[in-house]
């Protein structure tokens, strides 16, 4: 019994000699720097993920409000007044209206459609650029974090082998522990890289959906401005069109060629 307890205690003591703290201690300033860089990469990646999700959800909510009542307004200015102050859709409408006013002041002949299209395209590109901010960092983390962790592993293995060689005891129990300990940095690199890659792909897909919706709305605004309000989206035009009243039979007549409820006979 006592022998078993002592053996278990010896095993626990041997296992406690290896781990992340021991790897950082044995790896020196290089391993500690690699660990710090990976932690910072992970923290910034998750910050970008949650901040972009919040920003995207805000624009998606704005799109719902636009679909609900924007095109039922009598004019674009009236519809713009209904939107939130910082709405991306309000920015498109205001830029389109500003471009329409500026076109009247041009001295060189420029087609109104081309001028409006260029202004709306610039506004749309500015919104998409803001949405894409920070995604390059996620891509960089996903591409470089495994190699940074691998660098920490290489340095850790190198220092472990130098230490083992200096001790003159190259037995497997002296080699396996430090080498396995150095692999922790590679694992940390993968732990940081995989969420960053997943977040990048997810945010890119959501940005693409938002960009397509903004592009469709921009085309609708362009059509409205170019036609002086005559052209509206199909959904808005269908909603504004009155539904035809149900056809009612005139008094004294019935269907199938009857009059006064009595069927006509030849």
From TrEMBL:
It is a multi-pass membrane protein. The chain crosses the membrane at residues 30-50, 135-162, 182-203. GO terms for cellular component: plasma membrane. One of its GO terms (biological process) is protein import. It is found in: Cell inner membrane; Membrane. Keywords: Cell inner membrane, Cell membrane, Membrane, Protein transport, Transmembrane, Transmembrane helix, Transport. Residues 92-214 form the MotA/TolQ/ExbB proton channel domain. Residues 238-266 are annotated as: Disordered. Residues 238-257 have a biased composition (Low complexity). It holds the Pfam family MotA_ExbB. Involved in the TonB-dependent energy-dependent transport of various receptor-bound substrates. Protects ExbD from proteolytic degradation and functionally stabilizes TonB. Belongs to the exbB/tolQ family. The accessory proteins ExbB and ExbD seem to form a complex with TonB. This is Biopolymer transport protein ExbB.
């Amino acid at each position: 019994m006592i022998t078993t307890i002592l053996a278990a205690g010896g095993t626990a003591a041997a296992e406690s000699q290896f781990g992340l703290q021991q790897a950082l201690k044995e790896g020196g300033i290089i391993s500690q720097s690699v660990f710090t860089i990976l932690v910072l990469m992970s923290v910034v990646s998750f910050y970008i993920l949650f901040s972009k999700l919040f920003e995207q959800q805000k624009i998606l909510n704005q799109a719902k409000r636009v679909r609900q009542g924007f095109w039922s307004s009598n004019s674009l200015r009236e519809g713009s007044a209904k939107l939130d102050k910082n709405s991306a859709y309000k920015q498109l409408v205001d830029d389109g209206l500003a471009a329409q006013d500026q076109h009247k002041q041009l001295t060189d002949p420029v087609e109104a459609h081309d001028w409006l299209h260029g202004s709306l395209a610039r506004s749309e590109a500015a919104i998409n650029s803001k949405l894409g901010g920070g995604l390059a960092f996620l891509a960089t983390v996903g591409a470089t974090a495994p190699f940074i962790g691998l660098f920490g592993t290489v340095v850790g293995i190198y220092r472990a082998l130098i230490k083992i060689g200096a001790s003159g005891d190259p037995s497997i129990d002296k080699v396996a522990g430090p080498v396995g300990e150095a692999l922790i940095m590679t694992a940390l690199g993968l732990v940081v890289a995989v969420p960053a890659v997943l977040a990048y792909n997810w945010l890119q897909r959501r940005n693409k959906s938002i960009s397509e919706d903004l592009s469709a709305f921009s085309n609708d605004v362009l059509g409205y401005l170019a036609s002086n309000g005559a052209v509206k989206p199909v959904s808005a035009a269908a909603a504004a069109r009155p539904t035809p009243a149900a056809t009612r039979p005139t008094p004294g007549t019935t269907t199938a060629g009857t009059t006064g409820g009595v069927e006509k006979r030849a």
